[in-house]
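Module 6 notes. Inverse folding takes a fixed backbone as the condition and produces residue identities as the prediction. Think of it as a translation problem where the source language is geometry and the target language is the twenty amino acids. Below is one complete input and output pair. Work through it position by position during the lab.
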């Protein structure tokens, strides 16, 4: 009989969790400057050439920067950045196979008002020393960024915080679209959506175009804000990103929106619906 007050030995804990003891004792070290530099270059290459695999990235390093970087290192750094080549291939998704995956609901859907469909995604933000992950929630109709969060880890909690803030501030959407990442397929995340009676939609494997508006947002954020600076720390990143998203929503005109801003489209359409 197991004594609830007795602490299990490490070897027993690892056996129960099906983990090697080396994982239990592993303490990750800080990312050095060279790794951070390579990660920044890989991400810049990804934004310009999202269809490049590791072989082409290796050639790109040599052609553009006279750097010799082996493919295994590129693969490891891409995993850290949580990015994948944008073409269909086997085992593309990082989904947790134990989590339920939902169908894609936006194909062929006509969007004519705010809060019909929201979408989200996670991206990597480099800093002077280290990096953070950014999650943003966007209204598809107006392109308005409704909420965002940054985190030093790829956990689920910061995604849930952004989702709850968006719902509290703007009400609930009819449909919420994500990719098949473990953060979004987790029970904790989907439970929030189900509680608010939101239909859950997920991109198909390798179907980056299913979430194209958020992908375009990331490109704008990187080239108009992130790559123009070197954030000193997480607080500095948050402050600057907050300023950028205020500009993006209230001042940045979009050709696809007849040269109007996301705020203008969102609030004018919402006012018409309420009238």
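Target side of the pair, the amino acids:
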């Amino acid at each position: 009989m197991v004594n609830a007050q007795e602490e299990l030995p490490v070897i027993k804990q690892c056996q129960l969790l099906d983990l090697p003891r080396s994982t239990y004792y592993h303490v990750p070290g800080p990312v050095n400057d060279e790794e951070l530099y390579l990660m920044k270059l890989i991400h810049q290459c990804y934004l310009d050439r999202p269809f490049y695999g590791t072989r082409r990235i290796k050639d790109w390093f040599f052609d553009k920067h006279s750097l010799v970087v082996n493919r295994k290192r590129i693969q490891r750094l891409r995993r850290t950045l949580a990015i994948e080549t944008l073409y269909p291939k086997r085992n593309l998704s990082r989904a947790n196979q134990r989590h339920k995956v939902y169908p894609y609901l936006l194909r062929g859907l006509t969007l004519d008002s705010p809060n019909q469909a929201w979408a989200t995604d996670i991206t990597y933000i480099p800093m002077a020393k280290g990096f953070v992950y950014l999650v943003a929630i966007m209204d598809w109709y107006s392109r308005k960024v409704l909420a965002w969060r940054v985190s030093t880890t790829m956990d689920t909690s910061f995604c849930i915080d952004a989702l709850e803030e968006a719902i509290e501030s703007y009400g609930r959407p009819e449909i919420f679209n994500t990719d098949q990442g473990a953060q979004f397929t987790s029970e904790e995340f989907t439970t929030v959506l189900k509680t608010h009676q939101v239909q859950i939609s997920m991109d198909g494997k390798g179907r980056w175009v299913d979430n194209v508006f958020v992908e375009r947002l990331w490109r704008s954020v990187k080239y108009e804000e992130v790559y123009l600076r070197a954030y000193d720390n997480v607080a500095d990143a948050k402050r600057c990103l907050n300023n950028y998203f205020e500009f993006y929503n209230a001042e940045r005109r979009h050709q696809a929106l007849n040269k109007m801003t996301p705020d203008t489209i969102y609030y004018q359409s919402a006012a018409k619906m309420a009238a």
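Reference fact for the lab report: Strands lie at 117-126, 131-139, 145-151, 175-178, 199-202.
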